[in-house]
Amino acid sequence: MKRGLMLSGLVTAMLATACQQTETQVDILVEPEQEPTPFSAYLIVPENGFYGPLRVKVGFDDREIHTQVFRFWMSGDDTAVYFAVPHNLSGYEAEGMGVWRWNAEMAEPELVFNDDFVIENVAQVTSPSGREALVVMMTDGGLGAPHVAIADPDRGRVFRSQMSTFLTTGTGEVEISKYEEPDIRAG
What we know:
By secondary structure, this protein is mostly beta strands. It has one domain. It contains 2 helices and 14 strands; from the N terminus they run βαβββββββββββββα. The chain has helices at residues 10-22, 181-186, and strands at residues 3-6, 39-43, 52-58, 61-69, 71-74, 80-86, 97-103, 110-115, 118-126, 132-139, 146-152, 156-161, 164-168, 174-178. The strands form 4 sheets. A 4-stranded antiparallel beta sheet has the order 5-6-7-8, with no helix packed on it. Strand 10 and strand 11 form a beta hairpin. The longest helix has 13 residues, at 10-22. The chain is globular, with a radius of gyration of 17 Å. Mean pLDDT is 76; it is low at 1-32.
């Protein structure tokens, strides 16, 4: 049986924006032959693998940021890249991942947060006051359940709900739909 949890205020505004963006969000893949933009990123995944090196271009400078990236997402203003990296420390069969951030001002990427699940999608949202947050959608390899989190890029994870999904309502508010294990097993 689904149970709903109503959120309000800043979190509601951020989640509403993220849920609208996630339906149309696509990883940005810029082929090396294309004209360089001020900041772009591309992932090279081997034909027989899940992970590959993440490379970024800043002007004409092309550099590798990390060697084992699962997926990546550009920030809303295209000045940073967020990416999921396996950390193999937790989760079902060590599937845990971390979300990392890199921008052109950083020498090395920095860890935003780790979790026990596979990171499926990250959407950067901005509140009306200008504060940024990451809305993160995850799944686990055991049960296949969805999980959600909200992270502050500077403070790490600030909210997490297991066996949950984000839902939008007609009023612009966002609900977190919480599932029980039998609901997930039933599909």
